[in-house]
Amino acid sequence: MYALAATPLPTPTPTVDPQLVTPGPGGFTVIAILVVLVALLVADMLRRVRRTRYRAEANEALDAEEEAARRDGSADAEEDSAAEVDDDADPRA
Prior knowledge:
The chain is an all-alpha fold. The chain has helices spanning about 1-5, 25-90.
């Protein structure tokens, strides 16, 4: 058991210089540009989605107004036709 404790643990020797495998200023620049581009892309996407949602809401409101006008128009037409029927009646009767 003493022999196991006396055996030194091997330490790995680096085969690659750590300075050669770091991204450096060029890597930082590329990542910074990518972050800015992605942020602009997300902002543009959110703007387009918001515009699409507003257009859909506006179209729904216009459809509701047209439907209400159509219903009011049909109600007015029914009242006009009822008035015409009364006008067509013989006043002597």
